Amino acid sequence: MPLPDRNIPWPPKETERPRALYDEWGAWYGGDPDELVRVYRGSAGGIDLKTHPWQYSGGVRGAVGRLFWGAPPTDGQQPTRLHVPLASDIASVNADLLYAEPPSLAIAGDAGEDDPTQQRLDILLTAMHSALIEGAEICSPYGGVFQRLSWNTDVADHIIMEPIVPDCAAPEWAGQYLTAVTFWRVLSDEDGRVWRHLERHEPGRVYHGLYQGTEDKLGRQMALADHPGTERFAQLVDSQGGVTTGAKGLAAEYFPNMRPNRIMRGSPLGRSDYQGVVPLFDSLDETWSALAREIRLAKARMVVPDSFLDNLGRGQGQTFDVDREIYKGVSGMLQQSGQGMQDLIQLIQPAIRIEEHLSGAQALAEQIVRGAGFSAQTFGEGPSDVNVTATEVQHRERRTFSTRSRKLGYQTGPLKRISRAALEMDAHVFPGHGIRPQPVMVQWPDGVQDAPEATARTVQLWAGAQAASTEIRVRAIHPDWHDQQVNDEVARIQAENPVVDPFVAAGIIPGQGEGADEDPPAPEEGD
User: pTM for the full model?
Assistant: First the structure.
């Protein structure tokens, strides 16, 4: 179906609950303290929490008020709320685990490296790799990401892939498969007039529409040329407001982080790594802020008599010079008190409970990391031995690599589909490369590998013991190669090291040579 042509509520109501969660998770991912305050104090219905202490009430408002970032500031106290960026660290680690090394994409069949389609696919993968890394980072907090294919002949001679945060998408599903999706962006918001650009993806088509409405209404559809943000699409769309992509399927795909979604049961939307650990994020920030407050309050302070202060004049107050070495004593005061000069100066130095705070923060951080599906060692905690093998690393980070394997299972299908769509669109928009769009195979690299020297020694031992064929040895050295690359390398190795018959190498031809035609000697008597 095309874009809406009437004034309807926007954003769509079915996206309301996911967008509320995205707003909260996005605040933790962004790490801006002001944004966290906005999210949690705004959750109390926009009521001033300072004058309405909802932390003493029940329900949602009371729960929000009891959170560290939802509680109102204390009168007369310096606001010192610190944020520990562990949430953004989790998202960054997720991206590194999945796409730090790009996967291997190969077209189905026996095509080799010289096949034009395979060569074009390699170019597209190189161009898409950065978008895949960025999308994997977005996946972690938002539970999934949309990858959109497009083209712009002014900036690139190939198809472009861009990650789209799901808080501005209205997807449509058939089970867990995406059948259509509408993206939107706010172009401007002035005097209550909101200009929106809607982009709807259907199989083989992309529709563009410009709307002028209000904050909660889509408004009426305008010509694309009426706003500078959409005027370039006015020359691309046809009479129906759409563009033909050349792909059989969608020019967009949803990459879930993991499933099932524990909050929205039965939803095809992926699960965020932050589900279940947001209260721990809040407690970690409270603990870290308490440590900073204790350090501030435990500063050394000196108490001295008034006579030690220098009067700066009427209304200017008094000061005490901590670097001054000689003071004039007041005899009468000393005799009455029975104290010496040094007894009149008191230095106050409260104790700082650093270890208690650090151990509490570490316990919270470990629980957060474990709840997100990772091992503490992945974040630099635990033993830090340098000379460890890949097997030892995988044993220590078993939970992390188990999570990685699960996530790769959800990445493979969407990556296959969008890679094929990219080939189809590339053949349509940039003809002349000899592309034959066909299914794409995905092979993922190992998460951790031994050092090249260790792999080389292992392969050498295999060869010396005749325990592995040339093909197996090549695959061990190049685990990211597809079948045709391995076969080509095996053929090159065999051509460089041909098998030579030892008799031929010595110049001896079986059945010829000295004594070849003579009769064998007769057996001696008694033999």
Answer: 0.77
